Amino acid sequence: MQNAEEILDGTFLEVRAKLLEVAATLDRIERAQGDAGDFSDLSKKRREKVDQAIGILLSSGSDRAERLQKLFSREYEDAWRNDFGI
Amino acid sequence: MDYIDPHIHMVSRTTDDYATLARMGCVAMSEPAFWAGFDRGSVDGFRDYFHQLTDVEPKRAAQYGIQHFTWLCINAKEAENVSLSRDVIAMIPEFIDRPNVLGIGEIGLNKNTKNEATVFLEHLDLAVKYQQQILIHTPHLEDKYQGTRMILDMLCDDQRIDPTRVLVDHVEEHTISEVLDRGFWAGMTLYPVTKCTPERAADMIEQVGGERLLVNSAGDWGPSKPTAVPDLIFEMRRRGHSETLIRKVVYDNPIAFFSQSQNFSFKPRT
């Protein structure tokens, strides 16, 4: 099995490329924002989610992927069966 | 390495794909009934589709030495039409004894609506009545977490359901543990954008181990890659995993799960 250094070195260029894609996309959004005006409520929420996701990436732990998935998920309500009458 | 793709929609693939899969080591596959890219208008549309799944595809696969199995249902997306769904559920017993039918699937939720849940429960009744195994589709993207929890609620509420005969598919990082902890089998789908990559699937195997875990390509009419399972094999080898663990996930586990169906007549290569 690979150790931490081997994983980091082996994936460094791939991670670098993915981070650059995110950075370039955010730049593109910012450049276009002047023309498009304000975001709709939905787009605002999406933009906030992206910032929250970046916050998760900056945190520590070995469950970032799971936390990111939950960030982008609709909430689960225990009482859903009552709402549906099921 | 011989492998089995437990969830691949070959009606959407070319015959060239069968040839490629055979050359990559695919020896068997199971094909759940799913959405065709459009909503079908009548029960006869599904009758023709089930004929394709139980007669046409097994012959097409056999030309390349691949054993083809299938699952029957009306998928969650078309389940929004409850009346049509009931007609299809009533028609499924016409096909349930066909030799390649493993059970009822892929049933589940799509947008987590009341109609979808109603039809899901009626599929469970059908599976119980005919003692069939169950293959479950969980929703995509932002609907997955909520929908998976709802599906698990309905399954666990029904004392007639044996979790060891149910495969919950398309699990990801935020749903895999709950599925396995409740005693079900879990399937990871290697699919661009909406599901998971071979690298993330390998991560999940490292985190939860290989017990009751399957991996599939989905290989449908969308942007998918039918040879995604060999990609996982390659990734696991690259990371230094044992051949025993790799074989367990891509070959032994599908056989163990499918063997609970009386129609699973798989013959290993000698």
Outline the structure in words.
The complex is a heterodimer of chains A (86) and B (270). Chain A is flat, with a radius of gyration of 18 Å. Chain A folds into two domains: 1-37; 38-76. Chain A is built from four helices and no strands. Helix content of chain A is 74%, strand content 0%. In chain B, strand 2 (26-32), helix 2 (43-62) and strand 3 form a beta-alpha-beta unit. The longest helix of chain B is centred in the N-terminal third of the chain and has 20 residues, at 43-62. Chain B has a single domain, classed as TIM Barrel (Alpha-Beta Barrel), CATH 3.20.20. In chain B, helix 3 (82-91) packs parallel to helix 4 and helix 7 (198-208) packs across helix 8 (228-238). By secondary structure, chain B is α/β, with parallel strands linked by helices. An eight-stranded parallel beta sheet of chain B has the order 1-2-3-4-5-6-7-8. Classes of the chains: A mainly alpha (86), B alpha/beta (270). Chains A and B meet through helix 3 and helix 4 of A and helix 4 and helix 5 of B.
What are the SSEs and their pairings?
The complex is a heterodimer of chains A (86) and B (270).
Chain A: H1 4-36, H2 41-58, H3 64-71, H4 80-84
Helix pairs in contact in A: 2-3
Chain B: E1 3-5, H1 15-24, E2 26-32, H2 43-62, E3 67-72, H3 82-91, E4 101-108, H4 114-129, E5 133-137, H5 144-157, E6 166-168, H6 176-181, E7 185-189, H7 198-208, E8 213-216, H8 228-238, H9 243-258
Parallel strand pairs in B: 1-2, 2-3, 3-4, 4-5, 5-6, 6-7, 7-8
